[in-house]
Amino acid sequence: MDDLLIHMMRWGQQGYSCSQILLLMALEEKGQNNPDLVRAMAGLAFGCGSGRATCGSLTGGCCLLAFKAVDPDHSARSSEQLPMMLQELTEWFETRIGSFGEGAACSAIVGKGGPEMARQTCAELVGETYAKVMAILAEYGVES
């Protein structure tokens, strides 16, 4: 287990969700603190709370891309490349979770493995999603 994953798991042990952890990583890298944004990201966790919607690792990863892919001329707008980056992340994610079952819903990924299986599956998936987002940003020449 690498240091990044251990760092992410510590936030998980503190009660932060997958989507929150992804943005916490970005904020920490920038030396910023934004409790309002982190709190808002909780709305994406566990498939928007019901388990039936898209996994918070994917939606959080999409938010992380948007957070980092800034239009160089207008800091409040996203880069024109964002839609392509989002598509690449989504396609990767769908391929990555293909072995878990039907679709990208949180409950389909976690399944009936219980809390321990969910923790392990989610930790690995969040770590892989973060790495993929960083790779996509590098591919598109966006400073991470």
Quick overview of this protein structure:
By secondary structure, the chain is mainly α. The protein has eight helices and two strands; from the N terminus they run H-H-H-H-H-E-E-H-H-H.
If you average the pLDDT, what whole number results? 85
Q: How many structural domains are formed by the residues?
A: 1
The main sheet orders its strands as 1-2
Helix coverage percent = 55-70%
Rounded to an integer in angstroms, the radius of gyration calculated over CA atoms is: 15 Å
User: Biggest β-sheet: count, sense, barrel?
Assistant: 2 strands, antiparallel
Name the poorly predicted regions. none
Number of helices: 8
Overview of this protein structure:
The protein is mainly alpha-helical. The chain has one domain (3-139). The chain is 65% helix and 5% strand. The protein is built from eight helices and two strands; from the N terminus they run αααααββααα. It has a two-stranded antiparallel ribbon. A hairpin with a 2-residue loop joins strand 1 and strand 2. The chain is globular and about 45 Å long.
Q: What tags apply to this protein structure?
A:
mainly alpha, single chain, 2 strands, globular, 144 residues
Question: Helix and strand layout, with pairings?
Answer:
Elements: H1 3-13, H2 18-30, H3 35-41, H4 45-48, H5 56-68, E1 70-71, E2 74-78, H6 82-96, H7 106-110, H8 114-139
Antiparallel strand pairs: 1-2
Helix pairs in contact: 1-8, 2-3, 2-5, 2-8, 5-6, 5-8, 6-8
